[in-house]
Amino acid sequence: MIVAIGGIDGYIGWALALHLAVRGHKVVGIDNFITRKRVEEVGSWSATPILTMQERIKAAKEVLGVDIQFVEGDLVNYSVVRSFFEKYKPDAFVHLAEQRSAPYSMIDVYHAVETQTQNIASSLNIVYAMKEVSPHTHLVKMGTMGEYGTPNIDIPEGFFEVEYHGRKDYLPFPRMASSWYHWSKVHDSGNMMFANKIWGLKISDVMQGVVYGTRTNEIVDERLHTRFDFDEVWGTALNRFCVQTVLGLPMTVYGKGGQTRGFISLTDSVQCLRLIIENPPDKGEYRVFNQFDEPYSVLELAQKVYKVGKEMGFEPAIAHVPNPRVEAESHYYNPEHEKLKALGFKRTRELEEELRNMLRDLSRYKNRLEAKKDVIFPRTDWRRARNPVR
Amino acid sequence: MIVAIGGIDGYIGWALALHLAVRGHKVVGIDNFITRKRVEEVGSWSATPILTMQERIKAAKEVLGVDIQFVEGDLVNYSVVRSFFEKYKPDAFVHLAEQRSAPYSMIDVYHAVETQTQNIASSLNIVYAMKEVSPHTHLVKMGTMGEYGTPNIDIPEGFFEVEYHGRKDYLPFPRMASSWYHWSKVHDSGNMMFANKIWGLKISDVMQGVVYGTRTNEIVDERLHTRFDFDEVWGTALNRFCVQTVLGLPMTVYGKGGQTRGFISLTDSVQCLRLIIENPPDKGEYRVFNQFDEPYSVLELAQKVYKVGKEMGFEPAIAHVPNPRVEAESHYYNPEHEKLKALGFKRTRELEEELRNMLRDLSRYKNRLEAKKDVIFPRTDWRRARNPVR
Fold first, then answer.
1. Among A115, A358, B324, B370, which residue has the fewest nearby CB atoms (within 10 Å)?
2. Residue B136: other Cβ atoms inside 10 A
């Protein structure tokens, strides 16, 4: 298949490109390198050193023997998107090119508006381009489990049967996101559902859990590393805990740490995406996947890192810091996630084994972590946005 | 009270300004006159001749003895919004300043992106400005009944109790909108709910039905007319039917005409908004109103116009034209609308009486309607967006 990856330079994008290319798919990526710039903006960098795209593609060829094509471009520009679809007419387009940080979206009004308007514009551009020049393309749009929030009932995969006042309907599950970023994904989901309804486009909407890990089966050489963020804006909880442990810093658990989320390793995330791509929806179908492996509370994760870290000779510690976010710190959480299993998904990475790999990889780049020690602690507060400076 | 009106130059905005000013409120409006420009863009104009804002304010003073203040500005620009709130610190801000046409949003990708990004940006700017410089302000945000779509179950006012797999929660009702414009309102609603959650802002979210009519109790002089659109992009079904009847054209019912929506007269719309403003939410409260009077199917409305038109000596006719929209043409529709009644809302206009007024008013401007005859028939098709020209 011809698979296009929007955001191929990113954490999941690059790992997915390697995975699909090795599986024999023809991969073409597009990126505007904005995440590199935005991470620099907050004074941070990737824990793993990453090559330029040119060098990455060369390394993929030399190490794995695969050819990856690349176009530099911004999906917020419709003519770029349309030309891209016109030229490649991909069988699948995986949209990983959105601003993906909740704290970034909460910095101030400008970051809130930028996140929502750019994320929405890119998805609208993609569905319009598909409709106009490539209606056979299967769009794999990345959403997040965070769209659902933490309701006090089970979370279905996108839709559920509702009974109200004695009548029934099958409707989208209510969304209750918890940052402007997460809301941008909710907005996207609504838009994608509508694009499917009016034009019959094939769309898979992926509600992904938190992804962790430094490796996949294809990242077998330092030159093939994908980025790995650990600062308070761009890093996720588990990645940050590993970095803190390597640095001998206490893991910063926000509040009580009872916040429970679905997690999945990077290896299994790209496995799931491949399964979705290789098993496209029927013509005219819009389907939603809850893509995560196991739910854990933040505190449980810290305890796992503690255990593995201790075994490896680190001196881990857990600290509870004031929660900068607005979220329930203890709640019911039971999202369904059967559809990917039905496509053949099987967990290939155990959490503790993956934590061991991460701690080992990160130790190798301890100097890079040391250099950016001061950007790990939370500064972006959900309640008090910084004064806008623009 | 000090009441600010975003979009004061618009159909509801101007009518509301007059109504509130006569009730003794201090009214300050903001507008960038974009609707005037956008209506010109499609080759149309208001059926009722409308004055410039300066002349309008002068006429309001002379005819009604009220003072209305005005600022020209664009709510998409954060510094404009912040300065406005800093200067006026209104008790209520009514946000009527969004792009409000479904067909406009469906023209092509540029109109889709423009509608969604600008509507979202203006609302985000407003809640950020409130949080930063005017947290006591009560935001009255205009949504639309169209956010809910036409589910096969009753529609509550915003939230409902859900039971799923034996557990219960009180959640936002699922939204299923039917144009990029309607989806922009859904996105706004999510954002407003979240702004309330993180900052405790007082917000009333108004799911308004389709508004019709040329008059309110305050529009007693030709100089005080509010705008009245009738073209395929900016006019609504009922307004258009009246114009078609005055012109001796058949009323264009889209498809079978079984599409049922909630309707409310302009007079009663501004009555409802006043009740919402004069009865603000509690501190930290987010509340949703379904603001309409009665549901009618499009065909029923055409039949009403037929009856009244006949009585008045017109020669009305009903034509079924292919439906350019993607919507169910016969469906269950039972939205709840009790909360405004609890605040004291009473219907003051009967539909047939209001239709008589409209047909009389429009007859007076028949020349203006004749001149724009060719922009009434639908050209914007939900399934086939025009080729983008930008």
1. B370
2. 12
Q: Which of B11, B148, B181, B296 is catalytic?
A: B181
Closest residue by Cα to residue A176 from A168, A185, A167: A185
Chain A interface includes B162 (CB < 8 A):
yes
- Catalytic, out of A48, A144, A150, A380: A144
* Touching A: B residues 186-215, CB under 8 Å: 186-187, 190-191, 193-194, 197-199
Q: What is the pTM for the complete model shown?
A: 0.97
The interface predicted TM-score (ipTM) is 0.96
Chain B contact for A382 (CB, 8 A cutoff):
yes
Domain ranges in chain A are: 2-375
Candidates B120, B151, B169; nearest CB to A153: B169
Look up residue B155 and give its DSSP letter. B
A258 touches chain B (CB under 8 A): no
Residue contact B190–A187, C-beta within 8 A = yes
Q: How far is the C-alpha of A113 from the C-alpha of B181, rounded, in Å?
A: 18
CB contact under 8 A, B183 and A199: no
> Quick one: which of A65, A50, A74 has its CA closest to A125?
A74
A181 catalytic residue (yes or no) = yes
Contact A270, A293 (CB under 8 A): no
Task: Mark whether B131 is an active-site residue.
Answer: no
Buried/exposed code over B203-216 (b: 16+ C-beta within 10 A; e: otherwise)? bbbbbbbbbbbbbb
Q: What does pLDDT average to in each consecutive run of 10 residues of chain B (390 residues)?
A: 98 98 98 96 95 98 98 98 98 98 96 98 98 98 97 98 96 97 98 98 97 96 96 91 96 94 97 98 97 96 97 97 91 97 96 96 96 88 61
Q: How many CB atoms lie under 10 A from the CB of residue A24?
A: 8
Q: Which CATH class is domain A2-375?
A: alpha beta
Q: Inspect the interface and report whether the beta carbons of B120 and A187 lie closer than 8 Å.
A: yes
DSSP H or E segment with residue B207? strand B202-208
Instruction: Supply φ then ψ for residue A285, to 5 degrees.
Output: -95, 140
Cβ neighbors of B61 (< 8 A, separation 6 or more) are B67, B68
Q: Which two tokens stand for residue A133?
A: 């020049």
CA–CA separation, A246 and A196 (whole Å)? 46
For residue A329, what are the contacts with CB-CB under 8 A and spacing of at least 6?
A: A255, A256, A257, A258, A259, A323
- Check if A252 is active-site: no
